[in-house]
Amino acid sequence: MKLFNWVYKILKNLDCNDTFASYTNLFVNIVIVIFIAYLLDMLFKRILIVILTILAKRTKSTFDDFLVANKTAKYIAHLVPLVFIYKTVPLILKDFNYWEVILKRN
User: Fold this and answer.
1) Which one-letter DSSP state was computed for residue 5?
2) d(Cα 35, Cα 41) in Å, to the nearest integer?
3) Is 97 exposed, middle or buried (0-12, 13-18, 19+ CB in 10 A)?
4) Looking at residue 36, what is its pLDDT?
5) Which of 6, 10, 35, 76 has its CA 20 to 30 A from that of 21?
6) Best CA proximity match to 22, nearest among 46, 44, 47, 5
7) Is 36:4 a contact under the CB 8 Å cutoff?
8) Rounded to the nearest 5°, which phi and psi values hold at 46?
């Protein structure tokens, strides 16, 4: 995918070694994915906490109050960056078959 090869293209235009350009590109992509995953986690954590708190205040049920008290929304929000990472790692590791096989092991 062209989106994940921009660093590689820049380094190749600067006449860098192919291996250096590939691994630098991989490193930059991993850092970007971690940063985006962190932002997604923070964003969805805030959104889910607000939504769950509003729902808990509007209903008479005590179950949703229990969910707010135990910070369930915070833990549910961790699923969004997890899915993001799960979907983007194969795209980043497309040219690194060895690492993709190791990271996909159960």
Assistant:
1) G
2) 10
3) exposed
4) 95
5) 35
6) 5
7) no
8) -65, -45
Identify whether the C-beta of residue 45 lies closer than 8 Å to the C-beta of residue 74. Answer: yes
With b for 16 or more beta-carbon neighbours within 10 A and e for fewer, the 2-17 pattern comes to eebbebbeebbeeeee
Long-range (24+ apart) CB contacts under 8 A made by 48-55 are 48/73, 48/74, 48/76, 48/77, 49/73, 49/74, 49/77
Encode pLDDT of 11-69 as tens digits.
888 888 888 888 888 899 999 999 999 999 999 999 988 888 888 888 888 887 777 78
Instruction: Tell me, yes or no, if the pTM score tops 0.70.
Output: yes
Q: Is the pLDDT of residue 105 over 90?
A: no
Q: What is the pLDDT of residue 15?
A: 86
**Residue at 70: amino acid letter:** N
The alpha carbon torsion through 51, 55, 61, 63 (nearest 10 deg) reads 0
